[in-house]
Design brief:
mainly alpha, 2 domains, about 0% strand
């Protein structure tokens, strides 16, 4: 019988799922839809893999934005992402990770969803060699 407790076993399963996802060559978003109870497990996964002891060479930026309205959701997600990136800047600099990335300009008439996708694609392209 394994000496791991139930939480560690579940974190291991989530790590395995992440590794399988991350091995796919094309860029994309790993999205989890969770119950409130499962959210704590993901928080533990992110905390563990945010530490130096983690063997994952990935940057996790959890985006937890409640859907206040369909019209504003994608803009709210983008704003939260940009805020989280800015808040991580000092940590990235302390690890000697470049921080010059800036979100792309938007074309007139772009939807909020298009701006979010363009922002994510730009961020991924900037850091592709590191994460």
């Amino acid at each position: 019988m394994s000496g791991k407790n139930a939480v560690v076993k579940r974190i291991d399963l989530l790590t395995k799922a992440w590794r399988e996802f991350a091995e796919q060559p094309q860029p994309r978003i790993f999205r989890l839809r969770l119950t409130a109870d499962a959210r704590r497990l993901v928080d533990a996964f992110l905390a563990y893999h945010g530490e130096e002891v983690s063997d994952l060479n990935d940057l996790f930026l959890p985006i937890v934005v409640p859907c206040q309205s369909v019209e504003s959701y994608w803009q709210d997600v983008r704003e939260q992402l940009l805020e989280d990136i800015e808040n991580a800047r000092a940590d990235l600099e302390s690890l000697e990770i470049p921080t010059a990335w800036q979100p792309p300009s938007s074309a007139a008439g772009d939807s909020a969803a298009r701006r979010l996708v363009d922002t994510l694609a730009s961020f991924q392209a900037y850091y592709a060699d590191l994460f």
